[in-house]
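Subject: two folds for Thursday's group meeting

Dear M.,

Sorry for the delay on this. The cluster queue was jammed most of the week, so I only got both jobs back this morning. I'm pasting them in the order they finished. Each block is the input sequence followed by the predicted structure tokens. Could you check whether the formatting survives your parser before we put anything on slides? The first protein is the one we discussed after the seminar.
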Amino acid sequence: MRKLLGLALVTALLAVSCAIINPSSSSQTPADGQSAAMAELHKDDIPVASPAAKDVAADAVITEDVTYGTLNEAPFTGYLAKPTDAPSPLPGLIVIQEWWGLNDNIRTMTRRLAAEGYTALAVDLYDGEVANTRDEAKTLVQAAIQNSDRLTDNVVAAYHYLTDEQQVPKVGSIGWCFGGSWSLNTALALPTDLDAAVIYYGGQISTDPAILAPLQMPIQGHFGSLDSNPSPDTVQAFEAALNNVGKDTEIYLYEGANHAFANPSGTRYNAEAADLSWERTIAFLKQHLQDHG
């Protein structure tokens, strides 16, 4: 019943989000509207290498590519990272890609999270594809949105892989951009099972208290004041909706920061906002996934 309730909530959220983005067009599909909105946000952006990217020492973590589930005989594959020689079991994290896909930036973020004391699993919502240009990303994200049920099955499979195969005691989710929306969708799919959710500038966030009411985990969100999807008004409405239904919430709006401000491999990187949001993220995850008592 839990999973069925979660799937219904994700479906409702996607329907609401699609209506907001594409209210009147009869020629575009909802996926067209969402992918176009994301493409507009990234019109001057490319996933370029940057000296601002931080990584951990090579011997600090162990990593491997893993298969964490299947659907209709098609595998879900991802990138798993753990601290080297760490005591187990560690809490788990579902790490969710930006619209570019499971690229080097997300693998780096997964290693950084693992080094903080987590079994971190970066899921792949594009089934092995990675975008290097805005047009490629638009095509991939549009195809993914059109098959949103598979995305939900993907993140639910990741949860069960962490709890069943990796034996983690708690699980949180974290995602950026497209993955920020899917961090919230993961929470909606697992409303009483997930232990924490972190959202970085996810454009598709519900402001409907009825949709958000079943969530039982604390939620942290990081958004830029210059972002248009979601806009500051939407962020405030999201926070108000969570507060109205009594959720444990930390929502931060970073002045002068735009969409993708925390991505050091992009052109909108804001070091001050990225560093502060990372400190807050690590403290939040530690409080809700690691601390006892």
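Second protein, same layout:
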Amino acid sequence: MNSRFVPGAATEVQRLPQAPTAAVVTASYAPDFERCRLLCETMDRQLSGVARHYILVEHRDVALFRQLENARRIVVDERDLLPRWLHVLDDPLSLFRRRVWLSLKTQPLRGWHVQQLRRIAIAAHAAEDVLIFCDSDVAFLRPFDASAFWRDGKVRLFRRDGVLANDGHDEHRIWSRNAGAALGIDASKVSAQDYISTLIAWRRETVTAMCGRIEKLHGRDWVAVLGSARRFSECMIYGRYVDEVLEGAGHFHGSEEFCRVHWTGEALSDDDFRRFVAGMAPEQVAIGMQSFIGTDIGRIRRLIDLD
């Protein structure tokens, strides 16, 4: 699929249909396959109100993830989403343990960069009105209806106000600044809002308009624009586009996180895990165990009664 979009941002954001269609989007890779399998099983058990689940992976991982496909779950090859000039290979600088994406139009990119690009690019591939982003190391523990993401023709934009004005968010501030540069927002307009979380929603038509604006402003593919900065966050780009370019049109804000995530620290023991789950807020329906922390997937399965 061609990754280019028609230039120009939407001047008017239409209301969502009374019953919009929704899809869950998960970017993953082979080392997270078993975690993604757990996500799929818990989604199928607990999640309602979605028409499709797209799993976005590198070409060499497609065959592995095809095992997870069903009537509403589709594995999407990144080659159908991203430009062919972006080439992936084993990185000799990491003794071939890691992958690197190279081109003459971007800086060298790692997998976490490209996963973000896939999440943006799926908007040109999907047909649903609302895209719900969920990481592959998430598991749903409680029933959840996706209609929580829309009301009165608008989509819920996750936003935590003023967070970047506090200490300890240096990298987030860089991502926000680079988002502003990509979108053509005056550099003097510094945003203090944080838009980063998992289990959040975007309007598909807004994503395509956002990409069109980036291409029109910079005169090149949006992938090349973002990849040349390298330090970027897709959530920051979308959030600043909605709030500062569209002035919030088509969206309402929510700061509650539907997923409780164990972001950093040590792998959890059984007791630690039980305490973590017990600490879920009433609105939280899922947990996220960052895969690099190393909490055993078998333990998670056992403790949520899926073994």
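Two things I noticed about the second structure. Confidence is low (pLDDT under 50) at residues 1-11. The chain has one domain: 22-301.

Cheers,
T.
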